[in-house]
Design goal:
mainly alpha; Mnd1_HTH; Meiotic nuclear division protein 1 homolog; Arc Repressor Mutant, subunit A; 206 residues; 7 helices; three-stranded antiparallel β-sheet
Length: 206
């Protein structure tokens, strides 16, 4: 018979936060050590660690009164904090899309030039950074799908626009490489990719 797998730290954090939001009360550590194992299946010896990790991430508030430390977390504050993070994320998505648009316009000018330039290398590096940012924003959105559906839908829409911009720019890079192959007899694709910081597996975003 296989040994039952224990809860991960993240699972314990979620359950502990649920406890605070369900009870909507203020607790000291001893009270949590009695309640959490019974109602949430969190082992007694890990209660303090789990609560402290939530305090460190500003998901649970604490205050020392006399010789005791009290903890609390109410759903309204948690929702407000998540909304603020989502608003910041949307702002970053907007900024990223604007950067992609600006880079795309500059690339339209650069792709008619034959010579390798430092500016081209910088644009290729910027592309890699922007793609990384889009991936990070997309993951954050996926991890927070349980939040405001309308807000998430709006952010996803903005992310799709940014993804389309990346694909257009990726298409332009492929066009430039094709142009170079046709007009430069000594063209070496591997050296070209290395010069511009273009990954070997560069492809369109799905």
């Amino acid at each position: 018979m296989s040994k039952k797998k224990g809860l991960s730290l993240e699972e314990k954090r979620v359950r502990m936060l649920d406890l605070f939001h369900e009870k909507q009360e203020v607790f000291n550590l001893k009270e949590l050590e009695k309640i959490a194992p019974v109602s949430k299946g969190i082992t007694f010896k890990t209660v303090k660690e789990v609560v402290q990790s939530l305090v460190d991430d500003n998901l649970v508030e604490s205050d020392k009164i006399g010789s005791s430390i009290y903890y609390w977390s109410f759903p309204s504050k948690a929702f407000t904090d998540k909304q603020k993070k989502l608003e910041d994320l949307q702002k970053k998505c907007d900024e990223t899309e604007k950067k992609l648009t600006d880079v795309h316009k500059k690339l339209e000018v650069l792709k008619v030039e034959k010579k390798d330039t430092e500016e081209r290398r910088q644009k290729a590096v910027k592309l890699a950074k922007l793609e990384k940012s889009i991936a990070e924003y997309s993951k954050y959105i996926e991890d927070n799908q349980h939040l405001d559906p309308d807000k998430l839908a709006e952010i996803k829409k903005e992310s799709e626009v940014a993804k389309e911009a990346i694909n257009r720019w990726t298409d332009n890079i492929f066009n430039i490489k094709s142009y170079a192959k046709r007009n430069m007899p000594c063209f070496d694709e591997e050296s070209f990719n290395q010069s511009f910081g273009i990954p070997e597996d560069l492809d369109y975003e799905n």
